[in-house]
Amino acid sequence: MLTLRNPRKPDIEPVETESLADTGSVYLIIPDHIRLQLALGEEGKKEVALAQTAASEWKLSARN
Question: What is the largest CA-CA distance in the chain?
Answer without folding.
Answer: 38
